[in-house]
UniProtKB/TrEMBL annotation:
GO terms for molecular function: unfolded protein binding. GO terms for biological process: box H/ACA snoRNP assembly. Pfam families: SHQ1. It comes from the Eukaryota. Belongs to the SHQ1 family. It comes from Parelaphostrongylus tenuis (Meningeal worm). This is Protein SHQ1 homolog.
């Protein structure tokens, strides 16, 4: 089994048993491998809207995918999407066309951060659970395609820029990172960990619940699991019709409306006296 042992030195040992069930998935569990309970409920007043589930302690894992999809579809802003579709800002166009050239090696900052991670034992997982952990941080995805559809849909509902071409660019970059393998994924996870530490508003909870454990897990998970993820993600395709947002119809209506406005402007200019 391939590991990155040089990143795991002089670790602090802490008790991580509180709020977790080591080897049993609760029907309403969350966090890494869905083993955590009681944490979000205890902090619900402090964290505000950080977690979109109204009652995370009683949210059934089995229903989260459909509830998440329903929430995203209701949150979709057609006018906002059309704005980025018909009149993309220069910075958006630049992002879409930018070449992926990030260095993905584990660096000194990663090693320093990982050295301070708690030394902990991850829950015992079956092969199927390892596969599902590889698919997502949150929901119990059944397939790579399902995970990708959900992520692309959310990318068109919440970020600063909501553009299909940008979402496809991010998907391609994600495929590149995953294909680079274990070290690249560890570097990205470590970088995310650092961002959550510095971003405030209780976002460090995402590290406590997910990212720290993922940084440990990615170093020791069997190569077969990573290869399965790489192979399935490499060939997955997602189409606008998969998202349930009626994007194709919306774009057509937007183009027709923009054309009508343009024609009216041209007619008005023709009517002006010379």
């Amino acid at each position: 089994m391939k590991t990155i042992v040089s990143t795991f030195i002089e670790q602090k040992i802490t008790d991580i048993r509180s709020g977790s069930s080591e080897d049993c998935v609760d029907s309403c569990g969350y966090g890494f491998a869905w083993r955590r309970k009681g944490i979000l409920g205890h902090l619900s007043k402090e964290i505000g809207d950080l977690v979109e589930l109204s009652d995370p302690e009683h949210s059934l894992i089995s229903g989260r995918y459909s509830e998440c999809a329903k929430h995203d579809i209701q949150s979709f802003d057609a006018e906002r999407y059309l704005l980025d579709f018909l009149d993309p800002e220069e910075s958006l166009q630049h992002s879409i066309g930018e070449k992926f050239d990030l260095k993905l090696d584990v660096n000194a900052d990663d090693r320093k951060r990982l050295k301070d991670f708690p030394k902990k034992k991850l829950p015992t997982l079956s092969k199927e659970e390892h596969y599902r952990v590889a698919l997502s941080l949150i929901d119990l995805w059944e397939s790579v395609k399902q995970a990708v559809i959900a992520c692309v849909r959310r990318s068109l509902c919440y970020p600063l820029y909501r553009n299909w071409d940008l979402s496809m660019k991010v998907l391609m970059d994600t495929k590149t990172i995953v294909q680079e393998g274990r070290s690249a994924l560890l570097h990205v996870l470590s970088t995310i960990h650092g961002i959550f530490i510095d971003s405030g508003e209780f976002r460090y909870l995402f590290n406590d619940l997910f990212v720290t454990d993922y940084c440990i897990w990615i170093q020791f998970v069997e190569e077969e699991i990573l290869e399965t993820l790489q192979n399935e993600l490499a060939v997955v395709e997602v189409f606008k019709s998969d998202l349930g947002l009626d994007l194709e119809e919306l774009e057509l209506e937007g183009k027709m409306a923009a054309l009508e406005v343009k024609q009216n402007v041209e007619l008005d200019s023709d009517d002006e006296p010379e």
